[in-house]
Amino acid sequence: MAKFPEADARLMKNIFVDKKTKKKIRAHPLKVILGKVKGRGPGGTKKLRPKRKK
After folding, report:
1. What does the pLDDT read at residue 54?
2. Domain residues for 15?
3. Share of the chain above pLDDT 90, in %
4. C-alpha distance from residue 20 to each of 4, 17, 38, 42 (Å)
5. Half-sphere exposure (CA, 13 Å, Cβ side) for 14?
6. Which end of the chain is more exposed for a tag (fewer CB within 10 A), N or C?
7. pTM for the model
8. Per the structure, how many domains does the chain have?
9. Which residues contact 23 (CB under 8 A, 6 or more apart)?
10. Burial 35-49 (b: 16+ CB within 10 A, else e)
């Protein structure tokens, strides 16, 4: 996707997407696994997925 590793890390590293509201959240992966990170907005859930590379 990105032409150099620094840009790829900035765009993809530690970014998760809320499965319900489709909003992006930058968080540490361990906190996401433990369920300590919640999605944004009134409909935010703890169900998050990693951002996909296009």
Report:
1. 76
2. 5-50
3. 65
4. 32, 9, 11, 11
5. 8
6. C
7. 0.84
8. 1
9. 17, 39, 40, 41, 44
10. eebebeeeebeeebe
